[in-house]
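Re: [ENG-882] Designed sequences occasionally contain unexpected residues at chain ends

Forwarding the minimal case from QA. Structure tokens:
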């Protein structure tokens, strides 16, 4: 080999090495910058050249893909999209993805790192996508949504299977139609209108908004007291008001009334009539640590990997007994999502065992073979079966005293939560948490700002009818 040929060969070899190094650098370190750059249309075109997996619930297709005349696939939401929008989310060429469409995007578009999907793709000319099946029961979901929406309420409702954690309904109002965001001809106008609308329709109020739970939190406070030796017969004050320890500030019963007309009551009566003064006295005696432990057992401040965004609840700081007294009735800094409150009811219904809530049942391939399946998962058992049984009996007594009681076997607790700067003059959030003993269904409902009753709203008058309608509709389990 003469010198000129050798030099040319060496030069070519150096260029090839530089090219390989550059390609390796781009693939390893620049993939996110280039391949996922919003200005790179190649990935979008590739994904739209093949159908996307379906999202379904109860055998009903909620989201699917259809090809246009050019062979490009577009997302559609064929079944009651506003009812399911807060869970299924949207897929938009302009505004990206949300909800289940976002969290399971790789599965739906066939790029998930799944051994089963990879194996199936070896014998398929197209990418093998996964279809996501939700735990939602369509009838229950529609009742939950329509109960809120038809009344014009801003709020949310969740129904859950206590023994497994399956979410049977998750409704949020006002909601949105994901179809208008998936359509490029309507997306921009719809996006502006939705973001400007009152009630934040793009927000899933069941999981993304934390609110003071009011007296529904007394279930947690009672669990704390029961762990310290309290019983339904334990004596408590029934006075119309109580001075918070170490202050001159007073806290009153609802309407300024004496509890059941008596200056002294037992815990059963105090719970049944939701007497604030009794709960202040009881919580201070039981102590802040007991309340914190009970809140932890119920998962008040936990978030769950649902595939949809979730805010974190809190009981807040409890620096002294005055703060403890206020927190014991679900006020001060206590804040929870509707899902968190549904888990409280479900934990009592499940004998004190808290299960992990989930909204995705399984993922299947187009040939209906199962790619993955969500199994029930126990998270905590810190609430004893005895405490759960006592709470059930107390909640059954509360239901008997709640407006609209229809004789059905329901265990419940209502809440009427003050909020805002001038809390005593606010339109309260109306809450209702409940379950049907032995039927393996629990619910939580909130109607924000009093619904259509303003300052006169209570959990019993506004939220309870919705919760009962959901319980009457939800499929029964075997618990």
């Amino acid at each position: 080999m003469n010198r000129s040929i050798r030099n040319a060969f060496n030069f070519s070899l150096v260029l090839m090495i530089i090219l390989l190094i550059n390609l390796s650098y781009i693939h390893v370190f620049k993939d996110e910058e280039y391949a996922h750059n919003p200005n790179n249309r190649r990935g979008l075109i590739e994904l739209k050249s093949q159908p996307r997996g379906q999202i379904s619930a109860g055998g009903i297709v909620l989201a699917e893909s259809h090809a246009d005349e050019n062979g490009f696939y577009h997302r559609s939401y064929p079944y009651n999209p506003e009812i399911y929008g807060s869970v299924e989310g949207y897929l938009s060429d302009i505004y990206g993805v949300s909800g289940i469409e976002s969290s399971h995007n790789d599965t739906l578009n066939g790029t998930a790192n799944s051994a089963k999907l990879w194996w199936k793709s070896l014998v398929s000319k197209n990418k093998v996508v996964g279809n996501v099946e939700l735990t939602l029961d369509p009838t229950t979901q529609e009742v939950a949504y329509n109960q809120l929406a038809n009344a014009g309420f801003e709020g949310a409702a969740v129904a859950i299977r206590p023994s497994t954690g399956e979410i049977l309904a998750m409704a949020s109002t006002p909601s949105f139609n994901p179809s208008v965001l998936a359509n490029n001809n309507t997306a921009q106008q719809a996006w502006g209108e939705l973001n400007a609308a009152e009630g934040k329709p793009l927000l899933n109020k069941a999981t993304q908004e934390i609110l003071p739970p009011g007296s529904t939190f007394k279930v947690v406070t009672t669990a704390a007291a029961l762990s310290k030796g309290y019983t339904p017969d334990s004596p408590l004050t029934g006075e119309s008001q109580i001075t918070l320890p170490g202050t001159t500030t007073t806290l009153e019963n609802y309407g300024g009334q004496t509890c059941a007309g008596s200056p002294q009551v037992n815990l059963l009566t105090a719970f049944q009539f939701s007497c604030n003064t009794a709960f202040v006295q009881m919580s201070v005696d039981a102590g802040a640590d007991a309340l914190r432990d009970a809140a932890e057992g119920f998962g008040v401040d936990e978030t769950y990997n649902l595939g949809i965004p979730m805010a974190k609840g809190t009981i807040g700081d409890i620096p002294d007994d005055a703060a403890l007294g206020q927190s014991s009735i679900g006020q001060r800094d206590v804040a929870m999502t509707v899902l968190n409150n549904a888990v409280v009811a479900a934990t009592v219904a499940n004998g004190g065992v808290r299960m992990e809530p989930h909204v995705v049942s399984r993922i299947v391939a187009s040939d209906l073979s199962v790619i993955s399946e969500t199994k029930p998962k126990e998270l905590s058992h810190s609430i004893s079966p005895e405490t759960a049984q006592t709470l059930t009996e107390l909640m059954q007594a509360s239901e008997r005293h709640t407006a609209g009681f229809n004789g059905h076997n329901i265990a419940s607790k209502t809440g009427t939560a003050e909020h805002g700067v001038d809390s005593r003059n606010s339109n309260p959030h109306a809450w209702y948490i409940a379950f049907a003993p032995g039927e393996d269904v629990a619910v939580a409902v909130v109607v924000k700002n009093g619904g259509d009753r303003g300052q006169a709203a209570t959990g019993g008058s506004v939220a309870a009818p919705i919760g009962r309608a959901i319980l009457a509709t939800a499929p029964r389990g075997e618990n």
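QA comment: On inspection the terminal residues look reasonable. The two ends are 85 Å apart (CA to CA). Proposing we downgrade this to a documentation issue.
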